[in-house]
Amino acid sequence: MSTVALEEVGLSHNGQIEVIPLPHALGAEVRCGDVKAIDDATAAVVHRALLDNLVILIRDQELTDEDQLDFARHFGVLRPGSKPEESPKGMKARTNPYIGINSNIKENGVPIGQFGDKEVVWHTDHSYREIPLSYSVLYGTLAPERGGETGFCNMYLALETLPEATRERIKGLSIKNDAAYNSGGQLRGNQKPPGDIRTSPGPNHPIVCTHPKTGYNALYLGRRPFAYVNGLTLEDSEALLDELWAHATKPEFQWHHKWREGDILMWDNRAVMHHRNAIPPGQDRIAKRCQLDGDPTTCDPAAFAKPPHPRGYLNVQD
Ligand code: SIN
Questions:
Q1: For a substitution probing ligand 1, which of 120, 139, 254, 285 has the most ligand atoms within 8 Å of its CB?
Q2: Torsion of CA 298, 302, 304, 307, to 10 degrees
């Protein structure tokens, strides 16, 4: 556990901010008091904890939508959510362009949010755009007793632990990312199912991306369905993607969070992929989500010479 003394950052939250790394391949609980009260110096410590641990959990918050957005603004520029025409058809319209609802609840037969109750497959947010997101902030307001856990896998670690031959092979390669389906498998409102994935539209991102803030390389896979490794035959692309996905989503690189009401989870999309377990019948869940602009994806060849990110080793704690 690391504790940042108040005097170092000029704060007033019970004397301390605690950053408690979780006993998994990634993640830390941050105890910083009520996030409505944090100032820029506290936010800088929280930001550092996020860059160091890839995902942070802050418990026991009571936030309005505006409070959640004010918290997120400490870490960058908010990006609005999908426009109505980009959202799955038949979903209730957003009341705030910056707040999305992840929920399985329906009101009068109309979903109040996205993803329903099925599994949300592993993905990185907005990999289907030229400029993906930096961070996502999810705030739980209704937690199911069972199911709906949000999972993360550590993409620094996934890169570090790849077989050497595969690491060499993917240097300089890029993946074309499909935009037609969301990670709940729902067709986006304005999209057609992709035809030939070698020629269908979609942004290209390097398979190894250099994190713009930490300077470490991480594996960047986006989404598995309808992805294509540029320049390879379809067969070779599928085989390479299958190998990379099977490796990156190994249980030892993951952590799934069981929600409590009032939890905030914030994750770094340049360093993790995430996933949500299915929600069983009879269980309801609401999580409110906002997101921050990212940077163009690039790979700095010099970053291959760096030692791994501090959480790019298995079983690193404390
Ligand atoms: C997502 O935002 O992709 C799903 C995360 C969740 O609702 O747990």
A1: 120
A2: -120
